[in-house]
Amino acid sequence: MTMPTLKLAATLRQATELVAHGLAPAAALADLEKVAARYAVAVTPAVAALIDPNDPDDPIARQYIPRIDELTTRPEERADPIGDHVHAPVDGIVHRYPDRVLFKLVHVCAVYCRFCFRREMVGPGKDNALSGAAYAAALDYIRSHAEIWEVILTGGDPLMLSPRRLAEIMADLAAIAHVKIIRIHTRVPVAEPARVTPEMVAALKAPGATTWVALHANHPRELTDQARAACALMIDAGIPMVSQSVLLTGVNDDAATLAQLMRVFVECRIKPYYLHHGDLAPGTAHLRTTIAQGQALMRALRGNVSGLCQPDYVLDIPGGFGKVPIGPQYLIGNDEADREARDDSSYRVVDYCGDVHAYPPEP
Ligand code: SF4
Predict the structure, then answer these.
(1) Is-cis flag, bond preceding 156, omega within 30?
(2) What's the pLDDT score for residue 244?
(3) pTM score, whole prediction
(4) 332: CA distance to ligand 1 center in Å?
(5) In angstroms, rounded to a whole number, what is the distance separating the alpha carbons of residues 253 and 273?
(6) Does residue 116 line the site of ligand 1, with CB under 6 A?
């Protein structure tokens, strides 16, 4: 059966609009209104066209259509799950690692993802963009820290800015001698591909620094022809791309979907980079998998799917302690006690089928 395609003229932002367009059941309206009063909602025409309104478990809808579960906050969940605030020396900057900073320019996005780890910081009611003074102070901070090699524009979604403003920002950053890399994290090529125009792409390049773009997508269906064309425009202009995805229950928590997603990235010349374990953002428990599930999925990718398609499965340690890989281990039982216990100093290595092999110890 062909999926009905919803053709919208504008982004939906109200619970009543979601119901009116068949993206949520009328019986859920009161619940949706409560959620929408708490967390921003936006479903663009490009995203709405991907949702099958007849499928109650649609993996695209799960990412963007609010659910009442979002109002249940578990004790371990927190407003600032990855600790942006503790590493913010000035407004708009997060300096968590020595050689790079996040630069949060805007607090708006084309769509609002139900699992967003910055859901308490993004959306229409939050400060829209950095003030002129805050922007100048953030630039001064970057200028005065020679160890900053990479600036990561994030948000909100930086591609919500106009090409003119983005070009100014890129030029300001590229003029700082020690800033060599400007990385832009965005969901716009998927959520609103029409924003990626030749003018926008030109704005992303500035002499003096290399631009990388990280595309956020979680399901292979999100890489539509339009999204692929938007990415191709950037890549053909010489901007390398990487991917980031979040492991989400009912969206991509099965081996076939995850493999397909990674393959589609590679087919689009986007190198799979991060598969994030779901952060402890408030009201997102229904979308989080267990770490054991994530590791099993990574095991399924390894060996069965090309090496080009392997992302790093990572966890942001709550509190701001940074990101660490938490994928499965293939060198097992190799600490000193293990090796003494079996009276054998060889290493133990697991292959992609789960079989264990010995590897000779160093002479
Ligand atoms: S686009 Fe990114 S910042 Fe915006 S709501 Fe989605 S995950 Fe959050």
Answers:
(1) yes
(2) 98
(3) 0.95
(4) 37
(5) 17
(6) yes
